[in-house]
# Entry
Amino acid sequence: MSIQAKSQTIELAGGKTITIETGKLAKQADGSVVIKQGGTMLLATVVSSTELRDGIDFFPLSVDYREKWTSAGKFAGGYMKREARPTETEILICRLVDRALRPLFADDYRLETQVMIQLISYDEDASTPESLAGLAASAAIAVSDIPFLGPVSEAQVARVNGEFIVNPNKAELAEADMDMVIAATLENIMMVEGEMKEVSEDDMIACIKAAHEVIKLQCQAQLDLAAQVEKAQTKREYPAPESNEEVYAAVKEATYDKIYEVAKKGSSKKERSAAFAAIYDELKATYSEEELDELGGHISTGFKKSQKAAVRDCVLNEGSRLDGRATDKIRDIWTEVDYLPGAHGSAVFTRGETQALTSLALGTSLDAQKLDGVSVQREDQFYLHYNFPPFSTGEARPVRGTSRREIGHGNLAWRGLKPVVPSGEDFPYTIRIISDILESNGSSSMASVCAGTLALMDAGIQISNPVSGIAMGLIYDNESGKYAVLSDILGDEDHLGDMDFKVTGTENGITATQMDIKIDGLPYEVLEKALFQAKEGRLHILNEMAKTITKPNEDFKAHAPRIIGFTIPTEFMGAVIGPGGKVIQELQKETETTIVLEEKTDKIASVAVAGNNKEGIDKAVAAIKGITTVPEAGETYKGKVKVILDFGAIIEFLPGKEGLLHISEIAHKRIKDVKDELEEGQEVEIKILEIDKRSGKFKLSRKALLPKPESKEKKEESKEEA
# Structure
């Protein structure tokens, strides 16, 4: 048996080659491909149902991305040795792919569709999996008979030393000041996500354009591959949901003007919702019970269509939004810091009807978030968790774990703040921020960024610059080409609009971005306008935040832990730990501190001493430095008498370092009893006279530091002269 596989090759700059292959694996799927770059391989499959489920009024697309541990020759950690529920990394890649694909299916396509992407081989010197996942998913659809408005592809772009690198590897990403994933078709940008170190809007646009040139090659390769696959030449017919244009037209005739007036009036979320509900109830009252039973679904659909059209037309025609604002106007902002006395930092950020409460805790490196996956292994000493409880939108629904949306929004807020948060050996703290959304009417992730900045400054963490975030929206009319870019969008504007474009940054530049498009692409003209309008909004929000706090507090809260970090030679780690951990455990107990030891290199280990008591921290630091200090002959130390002997005393002059102070070295005079001069626990200044080369024992002297008394002859001479 022979298998006739078909393939297409894409040549990228830097000698990188991507191969798309189909026809070898997973042939019972509607479409399947293997993407290969270097030693990294992804298997992508797609299956779409042929039967329409009743009651489905949305596109049931599911995208799953999973990494196989064996792809890198590894075993999963812990007791369970098989792949379990998806990691945060896998979920974030799922979201990247989903957001690129979803807008490119027809509006009336309601068939359950599943895209699965598996990392089956991993090479850390090759491109990252997230740079290839979108291409793999789109290519699988392209070689199938599933109707699709693509192809689409994604590319990751990093800027290293001023140069753009497309589809970088892990090492290149570590040196980058920009890291972006862009999705696009041959013509238009579809999705943008990334983090950067305070870059300009022009730099970001240049990055997107660099990615688009490569994406065009990848889209063309998909078309060329699909042309070789017989099944892909004829796209399947599909059952569209039942429609009733007559009912839609009648509903629009009865409701459009009324909805338009509500939209034009400008009102709060509750008032507006009540007004729309009243119009809908009035509409239903014009139908009999029999008609409602028969046409209820169509009446509901027609009302939604009418509402969407009226709200969008109001924005385009009147330049007025649902809450009465102009297109570039930001909602009123109210902020407060130090709201939670028990937290190490806290803030409330309210913008219109969206409110975030952030709380912050400081800890040691033991509290770092460890990510141990196939393609990602790291420890984050700064992380942010985002929670979106149902009461924030006035809903009552079960809470069943952290949603993919919460993970995605938290990751975006974290990316926005990360470039300004101190790190490294000079800042040995772990920072955790929790953002709880208490009210939501759009831009809750951006409210988390603003509240997070305020909490960091309240905690006394010396961030390089305050960060704010803003969500931009879009109303775009394909027929006329008219459009309106909306600053600081509402939830309804997100739902009824064509774009959700989030931008975070400082006064100096952008730190993170995320853009989702609900239409078939976005012209560069609109993208540029949205970016520069976002800059104006971002700076306005920063000014409003500055009315509460302008810079980080000079010190931590009184109840926050203090951490002193320093390094020691690696060879002394064993001495600090002690047999079975005895030394370090006793020291922690005695000083009421937490001591963290980490080997950094073969020669250097880092030490972090944390506690709430300065005296205890200082004592622990002194003890560790004492253990790791190499005494030298001729050096002077302050010691403590540990044991008194007939012939001298044992002096501990450094933690774990002690020597003999012989009776003859206690004083210049003759001493009969050591106890006449010293007592246990007494502090004495000593000098190391000698270190025995064979035994390492220390010979100490006290009298060497005492003034030498005058001789008897000199005393008599002095008397005679007098």
About this structure: The first strand starts at residue 6 and ends at 11. The radius of gyration is 34 Å. The domain at 6-233 is CATH 3.30.230.70 (Ribosomal Protein S5; domain 2). The first helix runs from residue 88 to 101.
